TrEMBL record:
UniProt: sn-glycerol 3-phosphate binding residues: T12, R82, E83, Y134, D245
Name the UniProt record assigns to this protein: Glycerol kinase
Lineage: Bacteria, Pseudomonadati, Bacteroidota, Cytophagia, Cytophagales
UniProt-annotated binding residues for ADP: T12, R16, T267, G311, G412, N416
Family of the protein in this entry: Belongs to the FGGY kinase family.
Gene source species: Spirosoma validum
Organism superkingdom: Bacteria
Length: 499
């Protein structure tokens, strides 16, 4: 009887359950979007209970679609939107507040306050991260300081904290009836509360952020059997892998050697380079983070460049301006013109992340003339993703001391061949699309499958990886430099916009 591994992919806009076979091919897939909540400008929230209901629904749907029995699934892996912060009551299971999403900007004043004494990099030596609105620690502090009764419950041990992986695991393993409160090292490394050297919660950081230790989950490796599902959707199936979404994509792309890198094109863009067991600090605006830790193995680290708005800019063009009806229409519209018409779009809606880290930046469209049409705007929207990726790659090359030979890519935007070709042109390096583009869910499945012996070793996983298409650069150097000069001018116009 064939057996499979299931992956729960709890993302920024939707939750999915994907079932994979031994060759890393999709057997079944179910997906459900959840509501994006914007209480005020710069604030982004999700309803954790809606996400939990959707999680149960997509697991059930994935099983129904392919008539899968419980015994057909040997393990479950979980991957999640990182940094999105939720607190809930251990006894009731109810969240105290909506989940605060990674894009949320409400902690900007806290970033300023914490940076006053020792600068934006005061916690980099312990965490590999600059002070920014991005990470979970300041979101958690905001919740503790602003939600009535939460701090008291946290001190008593009644309030639990986690990124979305922790909330999903706790509910899957019983919730109020003994649910497991844990996270993996990749998610813990995004809280700004874990020490990268010790791989444990840091007492000094907890004191600085005024976070009670009692509310924190146990930190575990990314691949091991944590417990079993108690819910009726997959009763008794081992939960055996947890990875933050970008680390999961690194694992799914089989980037297990130092120097291998991948870029995921989703809501935002996330470029990770495996640096092996060496913890490499960045001096060019990148993050040092945990890549993964397989059972009984040393932890692997990565350098990461995070871009806040890429695919989300296409959605903005669709939903806010109504220039396109479907996200996929953007390529056709962009192809209706030969170039960007001198127009550049800097999507600093939530400030700028790597390598600039400008919380005071805001979005700008530069270079407008009467000549510019909606086709040029569409092209500028796509090109913004490529330019931001180039900025991150150049910083990564300086930090790592190596030139990128090729870039492995995945995520929803890789189906856009105009963007992928432009990316190769601007990088002046090949862009490699794998046969399996669902690498985030696949990475979570790999972590779980390794833990239960479904896949024996990394060689098994390497054999599953194959190339669908390679985009070779085809632009002369003069044009490439001219376009990048325009981008640099545009991005500098976005700095310091917010007072």
């Amino acid at each position: 009887m064939p057996q499979y591994v299931a992956a729960i992919d709890q993302g920024t806009t939707s939750t999915r359950c994907i079932v994979f076979d031994r060759q890393g091919q999709i057997v079944s897939l179910a997906q459900k979007e959840h509501k994006q909540i914007y209480p005020q400008p710069g604030w982004v929230e999700h309803d954790p209970e809606e996400i939990w209901r959707n999680t149960l629904e997509v697991i059930a749907l994935a099983r129904i679609k392919s008539k899968l029995l419980v015994q057909d699934i040997v393990a479950v892996g979980i991957t999640n939107q990182r940094e999105t912060t939720v607190v809930w009551n251990r006894r009731t299971g109810k969240p105290y507040y909506n989940a605060i999403v990674w894009q949320d900007m409400r902690t900007a004043d806290l970033v300023t306050e914490f940076s006053k004494e020792k600068g934006q990099d005061r916690f980099r030596p312990q965490t590999g991260l600059p002070l920014a609105t991005y990470f979970s620690g300041l979101k958690l502090k905001w919740l503790l300081d602003n939600v009535a009764g939460l701090r008291e419950d946290a001190e008593r041990g009644d309030a639990l904290f986690g990124n979305m992986d922790t909330f999903v695991v706790w509910n899957l393993t019983g919730g109020t009836a003994g649910g497991l409160h844990l996270t993996d090292v990749t998610n813990a490394s995004r809280t700004q509360l874990m020490n990268l050297h010790t791989l444990s919660w840091d007492d000094q950081l907890l004191t600085d952020f005024t976070v009670p230790r009692a509310m924190l989950p146990e930190i575990r490796p990314s691949s091991e059997v944590y417990g079993t599902v108690s819910s009726e959707v997959l009763p008794g199936v081992p939960i055996a892998g947890i990875l933050g979404d970008q680390q999961a994509a690194l694992v799914g792309q089989t980037c297990y050697e130092p120097g291998q890198a991948k870029n995921t094109y989703g809501t935002g863009c996330f470029l990770l380079m495996n640096t092996g067991t060496e913890l490499r600090n960045s001096t060019y605006g990148l993050l040092t983070t945990v890549a993964y830790q397989f059972q009984n193995q040393p932890v692997h680290y990565a350098l990461e460049g995070s871009v806040a708005i890429t695919g989300a800019l296409v959605q903005w063009l669709r939903d806010n301006l109504g220039i396109i009806k479907k996200s996929t229409d953007i390529e056709t519209l962009a192809r209706s013109v030969e170039d960007n018409g001198g127009t550049y779009f800097v999507p600093a809606f939530s400030g700028l992340y790597a390598p600039h880290w400008k919380a005071d930046a805001r979005g700008v469209i530069a270079g407008l003339t009467r000549f510019v049409t909606k086709g040029h705007l569409a092209r500028a929207v796509l090109e913004a993703t490529a330019y931001q990726t180039v900025d991150v790659v150049r910083a990564m090359e300086k930090d790592a001391g190596v030139s990128l030979k090729s870039l492995r890519v995945d995520g929803g935007m890789v189906v856009n061949s105009l963007l992928m070709q432009f990316q190769a042109d601007m990088l002046n390096s090949p862009v490699v699309c794998p046969r399996m583009t669902e690498t985030t869910a696949l990475g979570a499945a790999y972590a779980a499958g390794l833990a239960v012996g479904y896949w024996k070793n990394l060689d098994d996983l390497h054999q599953n990886w194959g190339i669908a298409r390679t985009y070779e650069p085809d632009m002369d150097d003069t044009q490439r430099k001219r376009l990048m000069r325009g981008w640099q001018k545009a991005i500098e116009r976005s700095f310091g916009w917010e007072e």
